Amino acid sequence: MNTTSLFDERAHLQVWELLPWYVNGTASADERDTVETHLRDCTSCRGEYARQLDIHVQMNVEVPTGPPVEQGIAHLLHQIDEQARPLPRAAANARWTPHGRRAWVTYGLAALVLLETTGLVMFGAPSRGSSPAVSVYRTLSTPDRSTALATIRLVVDATMPAGQLQALLVPLHLQIVGGPGENGVYSLAPVATPGDVERQVSALRTAQGVRFVEPVVKGGDAP
Fold first, then answer.
1. Which residues cross the membrane (predicted)?
2. How far is it, in rounded angstroms, from Cα 147 to Cα 82?
């Protein structure tokens, strides 16, 4: 590799490291100038900038909340009760057919889908005596106050196993407090006391399977 190629590669890497801060508006004036100068002549980096900008915009779009979970479950239970009402003997005999059994299976599956799609899925919750370094994965249909503590947003490969993601976060003392959303965005927060966000972001950015990572800009931290 000649000197020119090595210089070009370093320039690409420098710009890719600065893109998240450039996209969210927290880059310094010198960093913005470096990125903009490079983007004028680099098609590849312009494509990466467009991808990260799209992710950033989608992460900051408020998703309207749906109807309360209780209403959906109550409606489903009402339909099941209607199906369970006593019928005349002839009608009851006609009802106990493969078609009738399929109807009950359908309602059962609908109940599972309703619970999952409304976010009533929780796993990885630590026991009272467990280590505080164990992360918690929770998906809730209503906002949790813990999401206000988020310091980092993260997007990983869709094929990354949950165990690999946990192994990535535990050494950094991070836990998942929100997500993944429709765009695969996780909200991360420190397990205990706030850590070095810049160091955590740098470590995540170099990890295998990480597609995008940026610090959460609080209202009072914006430049």
1. 104-125
2. 40
How many helices and strands in the chain, by DSSP H and E?
A: 8, 6
- Those residues whose C-beta lies under 8 Å from the C-beta of residue 107, and which sit 6 or more positions away, are 76, 79, 80, 83
Nearest alpha carbon to residue 75 among 35, 109, 107, 42: 107
Q: Which residue has the tokens 């979970």?
A: 69
Q: What's the rounded Cα separation, in Å, for the pair 62 and 83? A: 38
* Residue keyed to tokens 């309360």: 68
Any idea what the Cα angle at residue 38 is, between residues 34 and 40, rounded to 5°? Answer: 125
In total, the chain counts a number of residues equal to 223
Residue owning tokens 């999401």 = 147
pLDDT tens string for the chain (223 positions)? Answer: 455 565 667 877 888 888 888 888 888 888 888 888 888 888 888 888 888 877 877 776 655 555 555 566 666 666 666 655 555 555 555 444 444 445 555 555 555 555 555 444 444 444 444 434 344 444 444 445 556 788 999 999 888 888 888 888 999 889 888 888 878 899 999 888 777 889 999 999 988 889 899 998 765 454 4
Tokens of 182: 């429709």
